[in-house]
Structures are given as structure tokens and as C-alpha cells.
Design brief:
The protein is an alpha/beta fold and 295 residues long. The protein has eleven helices and six strands. It has a six-stranded parallel beta sheet with strand order 3-2-4-5-1-6, with helices on both faces. Helix 9 links the parallel strand 4 and strand 5 (230-236). The protein is globular, with a radius of gyration of 22 Å. The relative contact order is 0.18. The mean pLDDT is 89.
Length: 295
């Protein structure tokens, strides 16, 4: 298990580098270990087209161009999805609307807007985001308790909203448990099954086009790196910047990064990946390891 970073500013050729590396592997042999290119959903077709239009290849069967959603669905398809009905977005909103009716008298701030157009849709999106960031109702309640201990009266509207959101969120979790499969759970469920699918074992993995990841995405990415033979992750960073040097030298000190830096969000991602590799996967990443592409 080895990991390498590809660093370069926008337009420096990070995607081209990944594609050429994949093409070189295909040219070397049409058979062999799986080759996986993980990109954002909107880039999957473009990457597949870039590989297929290369006249040197004439097709391929080793490469999997995947987004996180495609990856999760393929893992679940190969390992067997839980035998529960899949909850669509419309179905999720119906569940939330029913719960709001059942919780009348218990919720306060949200009670005044439950019949407003778009409220249930927004609440559904909020719950989805909380689940994608692996934020549990218990954590919301803890944050409520911490805010409640302050004497600032201006925080009361926020604590009231947290109370309502915690109650609705927990009720939603309890309602769908052992009854429905929420697509927001796909990544976590797939992450727990990475070891059960053959196409991840001893694979060569390229990760390109991301500025950051959700906790769920970090979770499944960790599983992929663990079983892959070699992983290369491209990040849009100025490799010669002093902030990039700080990120490399001090991955456990995010506070040292300048929040005003143009690349600050991606630098935070870089630090978190370095911590993930060091602490969870025990992969040593030396300062000399990144591949630096010229601007």
C-alpha cells in the first residue's frame, strides 16, 4: 500500500497526468490489476470519453471510472444490498411531513413554518447533509447543551432550532431503522464492505478533481486506499507556496494555515488526508513524495 500526491495549480496538467498514467498501464497489458479513476459525478463521462477516444487503446476492460455514488452502488450490487425498500427523495419528504404532524406540540420554532412551501424539502436536505457528515442527533444535543450554558440571550433562537432539529432528526432515524434504506447511508454501508469486493484488491487508484471530501467520503476513501496496491491523489495547490509547505510539515496543526489563502480549503483537505494516512492507515508520506507539476 503506497500513496502519492500530485500537486499543481489549475491548468498544470493533473488530470492529464492521471489519464496518461492509466493509458500507460493499459498499453503495458490489457490484463492485470484493476485500474480505478475516482472523480466527481459530473466528470465521469468526460473521463470515460478521454480514455475511449485515444486511438492507441482500442477499448479497455481494466479501468473503472467511478464517482463516489457509482462506487457505493457497485460495491452494494456486488455484495448484496440490504433487503429493505429504497427510500426516494419524495418518500423521505413524506416521512418527514408525517413526523412533523406526529410531533405537533413538541416542536416550537419550526411549528410556525411547517406548512410553508419548501420547508419540508429544506428540512430533508438538512438531514441529508447531517447524515453525509456523520453528525448524529446526540451530537446536536451536545451542542445545544453547550450553547445553553452561556448567558447570551441572542443565542436562544439558535438553541430553540437545535432542539427542534434534534427531535426531528432522531425521530427520522428511529422511523427508518430496519424499515427503509436511505441513499445517504450508501457510502457508509459500502465502506464497511470494501474488503468484500475483488475490484478494489491490489488495484491502482487515481483520485482527481476534488477540493474536499465529506466524512463519509473520507471513510470509504480510507477503505479503498487500504486495499489498493498504489494510490495517487491530485490536489489543486501551489506546490511552491509556503502554506503548502506548512501543510506538509505540520499536518496536525490546521490552525497554522492562513484562512485568507486562496487554496485554504484544499490545504485543509491535504492536511486531513495526511493525518488519515499517518494515524488510521499508518502510511508514511515523506515531504519528498508529492509529484509537483509545473504551472
Amino acid at each position: 500500500m503506497t500513496v502519492q500526491f500530485i500537486l499543481g495549480r489549475s491548468g498544470s496538467g493533473k488530470t492529464h497526468y492521471c489519464l496518461e498514467a492509466i493509458k500507460a498501464e493499459l498499453a503495458r497489458s490489457s490484463q492485470g490489476c484493476p485500474l480505478i479513476l475516482l472523480v466527481p459525478e459530473q466528470a465521469t463521462f468526460q473521463m470515460e470519453q478521454a480514455l475511449l477516444t485515444d486511438g492507441r487503446l482500442g477499448g479497455y476492460n481494466r479501468v473503472n471510472v467511478l464517482s463516489f455514488d457509482r462506487l457505493a452502488r457497485r460495491i452494494l450490487w456486488e455484495t448484496g444490498a440490504p433487503q429493505l425498500p429504497l427510500l426516494s427523495e419524495f418518500g423521505k419528504q413524506m416521512v418527514i411531513r408525517r413526523l412533523l404532524q406526529q410531533l405537533q406540540g413538541q416542536i416550537t420554532t419550526f411549528q410556525r413554518v411547517t406548512d410553508r412551501s419548501g420547508f419540508v424539502k429544506q428540512l430533508s436536505a438538512t438531514i441529508s447533509e447531517l447524515r453525509q457528515y456523520r453528525h448524529k442527533p446526540e451530537q446536536l444535543h451536545l451542542e445545544y447543551e453547550q450553547l445553553s450554558q452561556t448567558d447570551d440571550p441572542s443565542l436562544k433562537p439558535l438553541t430553540d432550532k437545535l432542539t427542534d432539529l434534534t427531535l426531528i432528526y432522531k425521530s427520522y432515524q428511529d422511523y427508518i431503522k430496519d424499515r427503509f434504506l436511505d441513499p445517504d447511508d450508501f457510502l457508509d454501508l459500502a465502506a464497511s464492505r470494501c474488503g468484500q469486493v475483488s475490484f478494489l484488491h491490489r488495484a491502482y487508484l487515481w483520485v482527481d478533481g476534488f477540493a474536499g471530501f465529506t466524512p463519509q467520503q473520507y471513510h470509504i476513501l480510507s477503505g479503498m486506499i487500504h486495499f489498493a496496491e498504489h494510490t495517487e491523489i491530485s490536489l489543486c495547490l501551489d506546490p511552491h507556496s509556503s502554506q503548502t509547505r506548512i501543510a506538509i510539515d505540520c499536518p496536525n496543526e490546521p490552525g497554522r494555515l492562513d484562512p485568507a489563502d486562496l487554496f485554504h480549503p484544499t490545504l485543509q483537505t491535504y492536511q486531513r488526508l495526511l493525518r488519515l494516512l499517518d494515524k488510521e492507515l499508518e502510511v508514511a508520506v515523506s515531504p519528498e513524495l508529492p509529484i509537483v507539476l509545473p504551472f
